[in-house]
Amino acid sequence: MKILILNESRHTGLHAHTEKRCAVSPSTVSKLVRKGLVVFIEKGAGLLSHYNDSEFESAGATLIDTADEIASEIDVLACVNAPNKLMVSTLPAHTVVIGHLDPFFQKSLVNQFAESNITALSVEMIPRSSRAQKMDALSSQASLAGYVMVMKAASRLPSILPMMMTPSGTIKPAKVFVIGAGVAGLQAIATAKRLGANVLAYDTRPVVAEQVESLGGKFLNVDIGETGQTKDGYAKELTDEQKAILAEAQKEAIQSSDIVITTAQLFGRKPPLLISKDTLSTMKPGSVVVDMAALSGGNVEGSSPGETVKINDVCVIGTGNWSEEVSRAATDMYANNIYNLLDEFIKDDPPAFQLSFDDDILAASVITHDGQITNQLLIKSYEGA
To answer: Among 145, 162, 191, 366, which has the minimal tally of Cβ within 10 Å of its Cβ?
Structure first.
């Protein structure tokens, strides 16, 4: 069984972005080889995550100059991001393609997978269940994103996060407000608290208040009526009336904060606008806002995808690709997610990918198979577009 790993840094994606992560690490290559897989890696695939070709070779991988050398013979293509259409056209039928395929916003690519009889598995669709935790790439990368967003904000703030008492006077701790207490938000809360800040957080799901408080943060209670979460743990979309109530209630917290971090994203849909320019104008000069969703539409009015901008002397960070700021850790975690997925579903001798739609993980995450789009959520989304 042959698996191909691309050097994704060769291909510039959205917002002039050069991918720094790799779908495998030397450690996971060793484990894949022990399972009986033949691993082909494009040269330089790990350089931006600080893994040299020699480390992959020592782990048992076969290095190739370009994917074209082997693409027509492979069984599995493991990626960080979706392969381009030219690459897909070179793959043999029944190849299993695994990666962040962004299926809700890449309809033409998904159709190409189906037409090419490719089995496409989108890691974003892996359910948030206990059994799937070890494969949950969204959560592993979001956790790193939460850490990185706090560090980037701290580096831009013209003050410090912890309280400092000196003979020259006392500096009060910075106030950090985190909107959204999912995986990224909780890690942002924990990181800011460890750095000594006073942390306030809000989420539309009251059930997470206890988690916020367990990390040392305070939870902002706002009565906006019935809210909740989906079966996969994502926040449900609010009504326009709820959004208006929430925006007004959060305004005071935003005004008094030194750092605001927004992490609100809706699965398969554009993120909600949480902070208007009018609200930004009420913040103290030198304050910092980090918009986690800037690349996909933005939580903050005026944030610029892939950039850091000043709005009324407030620094608004929308650089995105957060986990890649710690690319080695991001590669290690993502590579483990991919290995755990392959280890779960590659069986027998010789090894083969065992696909069964009776399995809840595969039923949710496989989006094309046998020439068809198989995911019902995706089909409904395309029909409603």
So the answer is: 162
